[in-house]
Amino acid sequence: MKGLFYATSMVAMAAVITSCGNGGAKKAAADSTAMAADSNVVVLFDGTSLDGWRGYNKDTVPSAWTLEDGCIKINGSGAGEAGARNGGDLIFGAEKFGNFELSFEWKVAKGSNSGVFYMIQEVPDTPSYYSAPEYQILDNENHPDAKLGVDGNRKSASLYDMIPAKPQNSKPFGEWNTGKIMVYKGTVVHYQNGENVLEYHLWTPEWQAMLDKSKFSKDKNEKAYNLLLNCGGDQKEGYIGLQDHGDDVWYRNITVKKLD
Question: In this entry, which stretches build a coiled coil (predicted)?
């Protein structure tokens, strides 16, 4: 994993550090303009608009997702995962990505839960997480999910319900964390606050074995199992999305660097 971390760091773009409030939105817009000079970089969120975003299996942005001081915020309904009529998962619907490096920042309110999905296939009448691996977003100290699963595989930056993030270096609720997901020819690496916390490989016997042991196994959820087994579909690409789990969560500085 250390060798892969070194290799990918050579293509990683510098993190953009802004603050919500106190001019954070203006600085985010300026920084995103500078990054756009790199033709391989796609600015998914520039701090000023939700252009390119929409609800999963929807044509518009659900009203529970708003702009707040240069951030994307999901205003929690308290109704659980996509439980409110005006909520639901949010996807960047303007483009699908196959080999990429996704960078973002996130913070949660006390006890909050969300997730970053990648390689999403939009399937009618099917939740987004049926087809997409999840980078868990969580208040580890105050949400019950942190004590579920196996060996901490539902804590922040984990591959949800499959691989725990180690070291577990997330910051407390109310503080900003940096996240990064690298996907390259089936190899996937999660980063949290500057550290490589897990690695796995899609479309391999090991990937199938992980699914077999998870809540997405064929016995427990055959539809999700089949979609995840062929993650990314025939083109090996998909949408990037943010989860509505009914809690207050903020995201900012969301960019993708395409990898050849």
Answer: none
Task: Give, for 229, the enclosing helix (H) or strand (E).
Answer: helix 222-229
Q: How far apart are CA 24 and CA 37, in angstroms?
A: 21
Local structure of residue 197 (DSSP, 8 states)? E
Q: Alpha-carbon distance 163 to 207, whole Å?
A: 11
The domain ranges of the chain are 2-258
Q: Which among 121, 134, 130, 146 has a CA at the least distance from the CA of 200?
A: 134
Map tokens 């100290």 to a residue: 141
Least confident of 77-86, 91-100, 192-201: 77-86
Residue 41's contacts (CB-CB under 8 Å, 6 or more residues apart) are 13, 35, 255, 256, 257, 258
Domain 2-258 class in CATH: mainly beta
Is 0.90 surpassed by the pTM of this model? no
Task: Please report the DSSP string for 110-127 in residue order.
Answer: TT-EEEEEEEE---TTS-
Question: Residue 125: CB partners within 8 Å, gap ≥ 6?
Answer: none
Q: Is 172 left (phi over 0), alpha (psi -120 to 50) or beta?
A: beta
Contact between residue 255 and residue 96 where contact means Cβ atoms under 8 Å apart: no
Place of tokens 């949800």: 160
Tell me the pLDDT tens digit for each residue of 167-224: 999 999 999 999 999 999 999 999 999 999 999 999 999 999 999 999 999 999 999 9
Could you tell me which of 133, 142, 199 has the C-alpha nearest to residue 165?
199
